[in-house]
Specification:
Layout (H helix, E strand, L loop, with lengths): L4 H18 L6 H8 L5 H5 L3 H15 L4 H7 L6 H17 L1 H14 L3 H25 L5 H20 L15 H11 L4
Keywords: DNA-binding
InterPro entries: Homeodomain-like_sf, HTH_TetR, TetR_C_31
Protein name: TetR/AcrR family transcriptional regulator
Length: 196
């Protein structure tokens, strides 16, 4: 296995692009090599097989979509109330929108995990870890609501992000006077997060 970390990162990012654009069936080492602009056969020197590449894509996309620590620290200066949770949800939506390709790759990973038992186990662990981290963060930050609030927010935001990134017209005008996605983020938080 080749060990150039910059080349590996470039190949993984190329894999994210291919996965988001072509789906899992289009994710071949040759397609990754082409996307990365490297000689054919390069990806096969960095990944043992497609499952290895998919696991590394999973890890990379979670890093790409992770919140900026400075943004989080700045937001945490505010009162621990519904408006702060709403600000976190706006940040989540902004990150998913900014890195649409990364988020679409995650959606493709979900679908591919239903077909690959090894990937299903690792991807489930990864996503469950994100959910548990969100619950722990919510508790430690002293935000209103508990684990149920975080779980319902997770489900609502997942649905909103899915629709916004894949079929944005579905939500346009569904609630008159409510903008998409910003206004819907506000409505989700107002509906799910308790006042105090």
């Amino acid at each position: 296995m080749a060990s150039n970390p910059e080349r590996r990162a470039a190949l993984v990012d190329a894999g994210v692009e291919v996965l988001a654009r072509e789906g899992a069936r289009g994710l071949t080492f040759r397609a990754v090599d082409t996307e990365a602009g490297v000689p054919v056969g390069t990806a096969s020197n960095y990944f043992t097989d497609r499952d290895d590449l998919l696991r590394q894509i999973d890890a990379r996309v979670h890093v790409r979509l992770a919140p900026d620590p400075e943004v989080m620290a700045d937001l945490l200066k505010g009162p621990r109330d519904r408006s702060l949770v709403t600000a976190f949800m706006h940040d989540l939506m902004a990150r998913a929108t900014r890195d649409r390709t990364g988020y679409l790759a995650l959606l493709e990973m979900r679908l591919e995990a239903t077909r690959r038992p090894g990937l299903l186990a690792s991807y489930t662990k990864s996503v469950r870890g994100d959910l548990e981290y969100g619950m722990e963060f919510h508790r430690d930050a002293g935000l209103p609501g508990g684990d149920e609030t975080v779980t319902v927010l997770y489900l609502a935001m997942l649905g909103l992000i899915l629709e916004h990134l894949t079929l944005p017209g579905v939500l346009d005008g569904v609630l008159p006077g409510v903008s998409v996605p910003e206004g819907l983020v506000e409505r989700i938080a107002a509906t799910v997060v308790p006042e105090g």
